[in-house]
């Protein structure tokens, strides 16, 4: 009698680094319940199998997990059909499987919708303000609002967020105020980041959102380190790390996936696959089954979700969080979505994609309209509420914008602080040198635009 | 072949007089559009690209330029010239490199559609997808891939989207590209390898779109490092780098991409690596810079003449490594005073290396301590940029300190 070991069973068991033969019954080695269609659809068993005679030794190479085979056979990259895209609603906001509806209370769904639309309104105004030269730079979140709010709503407030740069909705959900956003974009004296970074590089210790850094992928291994520290602290906290499918090509992404698996860290890797890294389409970014397809190879629990289905994102993140925290297992979520806006205000995407393509996603498959349809179907929303909220949110954004614009920039001497915890003698000397210089040449500098700090700069 | 770009005020230099004011109005604040370029085939720009170019001015538009751009001019003996800005000159150099060398390839992030700074515009259409192509978003991959292709006989032009993002490739560049020939006993080399990277202050780039990382690489034996001050220099120097048998890093000051407009010779030409340019001759103080800073220093020379009644010799170092010691030493022997200015931070910046060398070679000629005017020893800040950069007033004060010592 011969026992057939399939990729299927390896996938079930490899995510915690141990090989177990078919029939393993340990709870953690079962196919995750969030992947109902995964095992059946994923594998074409006939195309790849290893055959081990009963009772015969298995390969004993260090790190080997499989059996022997006497068939000369290369593993094909199209071994399986691809991880399916999990969704809860169709494009009309109709729930497909009643038991997949998270049945969130009305006020929570409305709050999620308000966050997504407020973000959209803020984006429009800040994008325009950059066009008018009032702020220096901006990046919109158009089309990805569902990935932000759906995932953020499924986390605990004390979970830590490592973002890339297009996750403003996560911060908004966590309580970053319009004033906070505007102050950062203006780099004024109320900016938590003290005017040092470009617009959209938000961060807030109170909200557990680590300040954004422009280099791509650098946050990923950092997030794993944070998750490891959380694991040791045993407070039931988890880390979520956002990144794009482009950043997933950076070497840091590999390090992050691998470290998280070997060190068994409570982390959710949340990939926003929006189709483009600036101009580079996914077809030039990767081959194989996307980002989620890499998960099994690294030993990560993996799922692909419809990022425009806010409830699907919520369900996936909620379950991922439970597994990450309870079992100390890293989870990879690939949310499929579409970047409706340009990469940034420095970009004009009509150079590399058609206006029709953008219009399709904007008009046909937008996360905001889908969640609105869900609310309409439940009778929780109507045109009057929509109009009232639109007006109210726009006013709130404009008022915050005006407040931020009036503020001075921070004291220029804050340029020298926070390089080190304590300013070094060299920096003190350079600061003094600038003070002396400005006494003499101050007329040539925009000093009137900068506040004068009342507290000592040190 | 001419090897030295004559500065615009050459006649005045020859006459030992100084040009005040400069002969032509500066191009400050003037944004060029591709339509200003004549319809030469290799830089033809369609209406769509025109529109895109206008939008993409974000990174190259100077909200309040801290310098006045002074264009180079070339003698009429150089033949046909075309009005180009720096990104068009870079594009033109790469076009020539691809046409003249069938092994040449160009790649990087977003290169296929023309690059975020439009430097590779139309090159894929013209030379093919196998020669001009996008890579996945991975700088260490770009560097390693480039080294391998060069080792196997290709001429490689690899783009790092911003110099600030070159650091994931640091290992490949510093430990591999720089040391390849040496460690192989010259069995193998990756000399036909050029990295292009936009660098420098731009008015609103903050920490990660403003850095000038030349000193990190100057500390590594085996690399040649070049930074042009304008379009004419960029074309000739880039062609020299591409054809050099040593790996090169070509830093392009991004604020000059549009503002540096010159009449650029259309023919294939190279300019020497390792040769500094004396842009203005003077008797009292040597002002040394590279890239954008050269233009700041030209203005400082003017201010010093007007306010301090001293004449400054302005030198563009051009090549960061190997730097032109002879030209610098000769100048300092003459003037007795040296002011070095660069955007990168003070500590261990290239100014430190130059100052140490000059004090050794010109010790008895020095009338004052060597002055360095640089970015502060902090990360490059966003809203504080006017207080961070080595602007003309800080440089002028250094001239005063040198003269009044």
From TrEMBL, chain A:
Its EC number is 1.2.4.4. SUPFAM superfamilies: Thiamin diphosphate-binding fold (THDP-binding) (SSF52518). Keywords: Oxidoreductase, Thiamine pyrophosphate, Transit peptide. Residues 113-410 form the Dehydrogenase E1 component domain. It catalyses: N(6)-[(R)-lipoyl]-L-lysyl-[protein] + 3-methyl-2-oxobutanoate + H(+) = N(6)-[(R)-S(8)-2-methylpropanoyldihydrolipoyl]-L-lysyl-[protein] + CO2. InterPro entries: Alpha-ketoacid_DH_E1_comp, DH_E1, THDP-binding. The keyword Oxidoreductase applies. Its cofactor is thiamine diphosphate. Pfam families: E1_dh. The keyword Transit peptide applies. The branched-chain alpha-keto dehydrogenase complex catalyzes the overall conversion of alpha-keto acids to acyl-CoA and CO(2). It contains multiple copies of three enzymatic components: branched-chain alpha-keto acid decarboxylase (E1), lipoamide acyltransferase (E2) and lipoamide dehydrogenase (E3). Belongs to the BCKDHA family. This is 2-oxoisovalerate dehydrogenase subunit alpha. It comes from Orchesella dallaii.
From TrEMBL, chain B:
Its cofactor is thiamine diphosphate. InterPro entries: THDP-binding, Transketo_C/PFOR_II, Transketolase-like_Pyr-bd, Transketolase_C. It comes from the Eukaryota. SUPFAM superfamilies: Thiamin diphosphate-binding fold (THDP-binding), TK C-terminal domain-like. SMART domains: Transket_pyr. It catalyses: N(6)-[(R)-lipoyl]-L-lysyl-[protein] + 3-methyl-2-oxobutanoate + H(+) = N(6)-[(R)-S(8)-2-methylpropanoyldihydrolipoyl]-L-lysyl-[protein] + CO2. Its EC number is 1.2.4.4. Keywords: Oxidoreductase. This is 3-methyl-2-oxobutanoate dehydrogenase (2-methylpropanoyl-transferring). It is an enzyme of class 1 (oxidoreductase). Residues 84-259 form the Transketolase-like pyrimidine-binding domain.
């Amino acid at each position: 009698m011969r026992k057939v070991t399939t990729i299927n069973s390896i996938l079930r068991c490899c995510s915690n680094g141990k090989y177990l033969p078919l029939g393993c019954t340990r709870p953690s080695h079962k196919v995750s319940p969030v992947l109902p269609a995964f095992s059946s659809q994923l594998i074409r068993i006939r195309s790849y199998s290893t055959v081990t005679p009963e009772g015969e030794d298995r390969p004993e190479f260090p790190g080997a997990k499989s059996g022997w085979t006497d068939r000369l056979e290369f593993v094909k990259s199209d071994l399986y059909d691809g991880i399916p895209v999990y969704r809860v609603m169709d494009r009309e906001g109709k729930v497909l499987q009643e038991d997949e509806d998270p049945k969130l209370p009305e006020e929570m769904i409305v709050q999620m919708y308000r966050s997504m639309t407020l973000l959209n309104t803020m984006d429009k105004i800040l994008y325009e303000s950059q066009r008018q030269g009032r702020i220096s730079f901006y990046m919109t979140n158009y089309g990805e609002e569902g990935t932000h709010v759906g995932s953020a709503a499924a986390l605990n407030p004390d979970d830590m967020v490592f973002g890339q740069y297009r996750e403003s909705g996560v911060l908004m959900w966590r309580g970053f105020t319009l004033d906070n956003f505007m102050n950062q974009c203006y780099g004024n004296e109320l900016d938590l980041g003290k005017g040092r970074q470009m617009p959209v590089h938000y961060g807030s210790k109170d909200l557990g959102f680590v300040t954004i850094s422009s280099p791509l992928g650098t946050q990923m291994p950092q997030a794993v380190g944070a998750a490891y520290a959380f694991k040791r602290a045993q407070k039931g906290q988890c880390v979520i790390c956002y990144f794009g499918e482009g950043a997933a090509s950076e070497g840091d992404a590999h390090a992050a996936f691998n470290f998280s698996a070997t060190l068994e860290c409570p982390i959710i890797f949340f990939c926003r696959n929006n189709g483009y890294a600036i101009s580079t389409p996914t077809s030039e970014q990767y081959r194989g089954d996307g980002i989620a397809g890499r998960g099994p190879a690294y030993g990560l629990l993996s799922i692909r979700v419809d990022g425009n289905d806010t409830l699907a994102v919520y369900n996936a993140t909620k379950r991922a969080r439970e597994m990450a925290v309870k079992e100390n297992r890293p989870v990879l979520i690939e949310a499929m979505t579409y970047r409706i806006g340009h990469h940034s205000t420095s970009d004009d995407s009509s150079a590399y994609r058609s206006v029709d393509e953008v219009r399709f996603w904007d008009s046909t498959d937008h996360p905001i309209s889908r969640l609105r349809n869900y609310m309409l179907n439940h009778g929780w929303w109507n045109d009057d509420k929509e109009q009232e909220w639109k007006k109210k949110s726009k006013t709130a954004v404009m008022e915050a914008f005006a407040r931020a614009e009036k503020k001075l920039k921070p004291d220029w001497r804050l340029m020298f602080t926070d390089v080190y915890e304590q300013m070094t003698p060299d920096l003190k000397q350079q600061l003094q040198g600038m003070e002396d210089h400005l006494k003499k040449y101050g007329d040539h500098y925009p000093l009137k635009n900068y506040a004068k700090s009342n507290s000592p700069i040190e | 072949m001419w090897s030295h770009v004559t500065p615009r005020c050459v006649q005045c230099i020859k006459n030992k007089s100084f040009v005040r004011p400069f002969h032509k109005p500066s191009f400050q604040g003037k944004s060029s559009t591709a339509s200003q370029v004549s319809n030469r085939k290799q830089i033809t720009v369609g209406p769509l690209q025109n529109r895109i170019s206008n939008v993409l001015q974000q990174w190259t538009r100077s909200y309040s330029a801290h310098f006045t751009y002074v264009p180079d001019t070339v003698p009429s003996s150089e033949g046909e010239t075309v009005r180009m800005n720096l990104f068009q000159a870079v594009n033109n150099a790469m076009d020539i490199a691809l046409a003249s060398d069938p092994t040449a390839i160009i790649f990087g992030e977003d290169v296929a559609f023309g690059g975020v700074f439009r430097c590779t515009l139309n090159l894929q259409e013209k030379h093919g997808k196998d020669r001009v192509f996008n890579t996945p978003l991975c700088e260490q991959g770009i560097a390693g891939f480039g080294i391998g292709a060069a080792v196997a006989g290709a001429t490689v032009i690899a783009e790092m989207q911003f110099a600030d993002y070159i650091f994931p490739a640091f290992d490949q560049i510093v430990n591999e590209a720089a040391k390849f020939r040496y460690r192989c006993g010259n069995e193998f080399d990756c000399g036909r390898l050029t990295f292009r990277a936009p660098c420098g202050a731009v008015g609103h780039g903050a920490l990660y779109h403003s850095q000038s990382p030349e000193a990190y690489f100057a500390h590594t034996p085996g690399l040649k490092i070049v930074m042009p001050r304008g379009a004419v220099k960029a074309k000739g120097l880039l062609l020299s780098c591409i054809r050099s048998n040593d790996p090169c890093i070509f830093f392009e000051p991004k604020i000059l991409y549009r503002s540096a407009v010159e009449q650029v010779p259309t023919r294939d030409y190279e300019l020497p690596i390792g040769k500094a340019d004396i842009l203005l001759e003077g008797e009292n103080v040597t002002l040394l810079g590279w890239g954008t800073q050269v233009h700041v220093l030209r203005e400082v020379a003017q201010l010093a003449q007007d306010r301090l009644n001293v004449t400054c010799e302005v030198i563009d170092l051009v090549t960061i490594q190997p730097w032109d010691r002879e030209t610098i030493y000769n100048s300092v022997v003459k003037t007795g005073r040296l002011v070095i200015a660069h955007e990168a931070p003070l500590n261990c910046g290239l100014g430190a290396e130059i100052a140490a060398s000059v004090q050794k070679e010109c010790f008895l000629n020095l009338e004052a301590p060597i002055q360095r005017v640089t970015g502060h020893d902090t990360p490059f800040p966003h809203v504080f940029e006017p207080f961070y950069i080595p602007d003309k007033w800080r440089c002028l004060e250094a001239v005063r300190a040198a003269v009044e010592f």
